[in-house]
Amino acid sequence: MRVFSKSGLQIAHDFERIVHGERGSYIEISNGNMVLSSVEIPGDARWRLSGEYYNKVYYIEYRTVDFNNIKVYYQMNKVNYADYKIGFWYVDPEDVVLKE
User: Fold this and answer.
1) I want to staple 12 with a disulfide (CB 3.0 to 4.6 A). Which of 3, 8, 38, 46 is the partner?
2) CA 79 to CA 29: how far, in whole Å?
């Protein structure tokens, strides 16, 4: 099932599963299914890429390049409150549209 922003920007070709945790539900997307040209790291989130923080942060924040500006996470480390997998992408299902 393909993942789109509400304005029609394709974010992913398919997804793996829905993860339920203490902070809500998130759609899990593999690297191979992510449309990387649809997201970028916003300027105020680039600190997560710097040497002193890079291996310590839980995720790298991306935003869609359309006017919806949807937050998409790239998971860097495990968390205690959900079964997020390192190296996968996560987006709130309330922010997107799923299509066959």
Assistant:
1) 3
2) 17
User: Hey, which bits of 22-95 come out as E strands?
Assistant: 24-29, 39-40, 59-64, 71-75, 89-91
The whole-model pTM stands at 0.94
- Half-sphere exposure in the Cβ direction for 95 (13 Å, CA): 20
Terminus-to-terminus CA distance in the chain, angstroms?
5
Q: Which long-range contacts (CB under 8 A, 24 or more apart) does 77-82 make?
A: 79/21, 81/21, 81/22, 81/23, 82/19, 82/20, 82/21, 82/22, 82/23, 82/26
Q: Strands 89-91 and 71-75, how do they pair?
A: antiparallel
Question: Is residue 22 classed as helix, strand or coil in its secondary structure?
Answer: coil
Burial-class residue 12 by CB neighbours within 10 Å (0-12, 13-18, 19+).
buried
What DSSP state is assigned to residue 84?
P
